[in-house]
Design goal:
Length: 68
């Protein structure tokens, strides 16, 4: 799914926080990952119930970033 990349970003940020001696930030990023997993799961369930995957991609355009 297109939203799973956020989990990788949060993991990278947590690794940076831990290596930079920022334990409170690392803990908060753990909490953020839990929220992200819950929301991604709920989104997947809604799409299954509706019977379609209406995921919009965010793409880069010369006039800026936006939904396509």
């Amino acid at each position: 799914m297109q939203t799973d990349w956020i989990l990788d970003v949060l993991a990278d940020l947590k690794t940076f926080a831990m290596s930079s001696d920022l334990p409170k930030l690392a803990a908060q990023l753990d909490n953020s990952a839990v929220v992200a997993v819950a929301e991604i799961s709920a989104l997947q369930e809604r799409r299954l119930i509706l019977g379609h995957d209406n995921d919009k991609e965010i793409k880069s355009r010369p006039q800026g970033t936006g939904l396509r």
